[in-house]
Every structure is written in structure tokens, then in C-alpha cells.
Amino acid sequence: MSDVIAAAPLVRIRALRKSFADHLVLGGIDFDVAPSQVVVVIGPSGSGKSTFLRCCNGLEVPESGSVEICGRMLVNNGQRLPEAELDLLRQEVGMVFQSFNLFPHLSVLGNISLGPRKLRGLSRVDADNEALALLKKVGLVEKAYAMPASLSGGQKQRVAIARALAMKPRVMLFDEPTSALDPELVGEVLQVMKLLASEGMTMMVVTHEMDFAREVGDVVVVMDGGVIIESGPPETIFTNPVEDRTRLFLQAVLTRA
Ligand code: ADP
Ligand code: MG
């Protein structure tokens, strides 16, 4: 008997199906994410990547299948947790979107400390101290009292990452976090994501940044037409994919770069 016990998956997805009206968007997804794993999700536009991530934090309710986070069922066959429990479980799942979504009327510090004050019950002082530590991590302490409108896109996205981290999530979901950025600002955001990965954060990342996928990804998942057509370590997916569709997609993305 092996004395190696595999860690239980942090995210466990089974037979996930989702339609919008009569349009099947996710056609049965099975996938596990292990603790500290970095999963990079790639695939053509419209293949269901965002819907997949949104099902993983309960923003979308699949019509069948299940999503389990940290051993707790978030959604199960079209039923999701009662709203109060869902909110608690959502705190375990941080999400960063392409379009930052900062609160425009709050300072950077206010954006980060609001959630911990309201949902984790921290005092203002404690929440601000934690927020400052997170700003240090993303390299923006000097912007603590700035308003979001005065920041560059890369700075805004780093604040959005700090805000998500402030809830102390067990897993972070990133949906094309650098796609809205000018090219020269992409690196500073990827750098923060690399740091999180190196600290052992469990991450699911939808991105077209193939260098990031190669360097930081443990597993690359290729989606097309609402299903995972293949998945594997980056070196396999990038150099020797099984599926022609993967090859074509990679050619298209890499020649665009
Ligand atoms: P990707 O992120 O890979 O580009 P999405 O998950 O955003 O793909 O979308 C997959 C498909 O689902 C697309 O055809 C999109 O038009 C459709 N879709 C996504 N969200 C909605 C929605 N809220 N209502 C209707 N159709 C949607
Ligand atoms: Mg998308």
C-alpha cells in the first residue's frame, strides 16, 4: 500500500453543464484542482472559459453537475447553497476580472478593506493594516490613499488582486486579467500572479499569455465548444498536443503575439 496520500482536490467539478436559452455553453466538464496547483485555461473566444470560471464561484448556476470547493458543495444539479452560505463559501474563492471593477468612490485602501470590515468583521484599523500589507505585496503602498481613477490599468488590476486576497481566499480565479491592459502594463500584473503562485496559492487562470502559461502553469486546460478537449503539463500541450484544434489555436495565438 502506498503511503503517499494525494491531497484532496480544492476544487472538484463534475459533469458540469450550462446552457443559455437553447445554447449549450458547457457540455459536461470534469476537473479537479489540487491545493497550490496553477491551472491555466486556454481556448478560442466563445469556448466557455468565462462561464466555466463563473460556475466555480457560483456567479452562474449550472443546470446539472456539481462544483465543490474545499469539500463543500457550492452547486449541485442546478441547486445552489442558500444565499447566506453561498456568500461564506464565495469568500473562499477570489475572482479577478478583465475589467478591474474597483469601487470608484472609494480610495485604494477603502476598496481593499471594505470586504474584510463588512464580511470578516475586522475593525477599521485591522482591516487597514491588512490592506497596507497587501498593497506592499502588490507594490502599491504609495497609492493607498489614491482614488482608482488616478491609477493606470496595471495598477488598478493589482489593487483588484489585493482586494480579492483581502478575503483570504483558498483559491483565486483570474479571467483574462491582462487582456484590457496596454502591453507595457501586462508584466507588472503577471509578476504579482507569479508571486502568488510561488507562495502556493491555488489558481485558475484564463489567459492568452502563453509565456505565463508555460512558466507558471502546472496544468494547461484547452477548451473548445464548451468542453475540455485536452489538458496536461504545459510542455506537452505546447510542444506535442494531441488535438489538431489545440495546435490550430496555439498557432493563431502565438503568431498574433
Ligand atoms: P469565453 O470566455 O471562452 O469567450 P464565454 O463563457 O464567455 O466564453 O461564452 C461562451 C458562450 O456563451 C458564448 O457563445 C457566449 O455568447 C455565451 N454566453 C455567455 N454568457 C452568456 C449570457 N449571460 N447569456 C447568453 N449567452 C451567454
Ligand atoms: Mg471569456
Structure description:
The protein is an alpha/beta fold and about 260 residues long. It is about 40% helix and about 25% strand. It has helices at about 50-55, 85-90, 110-120, 125-135, 155-165, 185-200, 210-215, 235-240, 245-255, and strands at about 10-20, 25-35, 40, 65-70, 70-75, 80, 95, 170-175, 200-205, 220-225, 225-230. The strands form two sheets. The chain has a six-stranded mixed β-sheet with strand order 7-8-9-3-10-11, with helices on both faces. Strands 2-1-4-5-6 form a five-stranded antiparallel β-sheet. β5 (about 70-75) and β6 form a beta hairpin. α3 crosses α4 (about 125-135), α3 packs parallel to α5 (about 155-165) and α4 crosses α5 (about 155-165). The longest helix is centred in the C-terminal third of the chain and has 16 residues, at about 185-200. The N and C termini lie far apart (about 50 Å). The model has no long low-confidence stretch (mean pLDDT about 95). Magnesium ion binds next to α1. Adenosine-5'-diphosphate binds near residues 43, 45, 46, 48 and 51.
Q: Characterize the quaternary organization of these chains.
A: single chain
Average residue-wise pLDDT: 94
Which word captures the global form? globular
* Major β-sheet strand ordering: 7-8-9-3-10-11
Amino- and carboxy-terminal Cα gap: 49 Å
Bound small molecules, deduplicated: adenosine-5'-diphosphate, magnesium ion
Q: Residue share in helices? A: 25-40%
Count every beta strand, where a strand is a DSSP E run of 2 or more residues. Answer: 11
- Which structural category do the helix and sheet elements fall into? alpha/beta
SS element count, helices:
9
Poorly predicted segments:
none
* Spatial extent as radius of gyration: 18 Å
Give me the strand/helix succession: EEEHEEEHEHHHEHEHEEHH
How big a fraction of the residues is strand? 25-35%
* Sheet with most strands: 6 strands, mixed
